[in-house]
């Protein structure tokens, strides 16, 4: 007897228990498929991300429109939607702007009744037990009495009205409204996929992680920016330097110090002693509100140089350690003529636009100075011991993977490295060759190993995690090289170019996407490949390859909004099919609450199911069917005995 069989026997010892469970599972199979929500490239933009979650990519508003369109004016619909997104803030705002207690009480009564209506339509897709789990435990009884009361008979109607009246009279209205709004948010989306790049560039990745940790159901496909954070706590000094460099570049060092409590004093003092103010290393400020003092700017600029130089030195060391990485093109410090300020790359010589090489010994350019060694060591210790960061990243490891096959679709952040003809590129290592799905599995194994041994700093697994950040065959990166050094020091833009893997041309072709789906054991007639990573530029299409490929770089990153011209894309997959949602940029939470400003979004149907999908058509459905088979066998045994 299998383990599952044994468990089921224990759980359902009597014949009647088995019959009840079969009936229950059969009923679940017939419910409509629950809604999946896909987001990606959130890049620390907590407020915009939080808004997308609260409004379910426009799903909450759609439910309200379906039910109240014509009964409420568009302004009232928006007001009501904003209440569901931000119940606490909207209630406070409403209470401040009301003339009399009677007006407020009437508003409470109307609002509770409307919320129960919305709850009713969002709950129809689920079993009673699942809906109950989405409720606040303190309000289960009252909510169920309101929810399952059909009000057709006068007595029932009176009963319903009395509950409403009591909620207001007993001063429970605020709390009931708040918890019901969250129950609705939770039911509108059943499962969330985050297709990578939660970290870097934006100000609050920590808050995004806190939100995800509270979210009812989520999986994460790691992005290249997440990898440097995972690498940092896995003991990779190079990953630490890269993430500090990006934080300095985007004026986000407070994430390290304030959000994660990692002290940068040692680094800062070292930077102050060795570097001056150089334009190329000043922080980018995206928002007008981000005005910083001259002193502060200078300090960040100095830190930026200090970590960049340690990074370039460590890159030289790692590439020499691992010729199999084939990354010699980024080893550049020995190509510099430190006297005349030029660099020779290939057979071309370029002038260097600035000089911050005081810590480099031209005879041994990749050697860290004693002080750099100390700074690096202390950063490694701090990252290893940063409790909150580890808590967040434990969650990311737990819910995350290199790729995910889910309800027939294939989800990953960047690419599957391929040659121009579409054949998988080979990563050769230790006498073995890895490609396609096997390559992703190999890298995932290395990351899990490195993460579980943070005290090891220069073992192969730790170096591999850094490779995932910028290696030419990294599925998360997908470019021939990262031209970081050139972008700081060389004017000629030709040398800044990072060539994309052939994957990005081929993914426009249907045959190629079918090949990918087959490689991962999925049905190519029904599945889709869903990617993040590359901002969809103005005029480009996010849906490709006869709808087999969908790119949803969420476009949350403000730095990229001028290129995309929009606030980004998200995707919904409900019982009717897949819908791509295009968002306008988010303004602010205050604007949403006071002026009812939502992220405007438009929906486009990617594919429409011929027959409405039910739970039976999903991965969960397959598991239920297997369980049903066992239960039926058990029932047959009962009949025979
Ligand atoms: O201009 P920035 O922010 O330094 O970033 C440029 C770097 O970011 C990358 O585009 C990687 O980040 P993305 O995954 O967000 O594209 C590199 O290829 C490039 O070198
Ligand atoms: Mn990316």
Describe this structure in words.
By secondary structure, the chain is an alpha/beta fold. Among the domains are: 1-25 and 617-624 and 631-636, no CATH class; 54-188, no CATH class; 220-386 and 426-496, no CATH class. Helix content is 50%, strand content 10%. It has 27 helices and 17 strands. The strands form four sheets. The protein has a seven-stranded mixed beta sheet. Strand 5 (342-345) and strand 6 (348-351) form a beta hairpin. Helix 5 (74-85) crosses helix 6. The longest helix has 28 residues, at 294-321. It starts with a helix and ends with a helix. The mean pLDDT is 93. Bound molecules: 1,6-di-O-phosphono-beta-D-fructofuranose and manganese (II) ion. 1,6-di-O-phosphono-beta-D-fructofuranose is lined by residues 197, 224-225, 249, 479, 482, 484, 498, 533.
Q: Summary?
A:
This is Fructose-1,6-bisphosphatase class 3. By secondary structure, this protein is α/β, with parallel strands linked by helices. The chain is 50% helix and 10% strand.
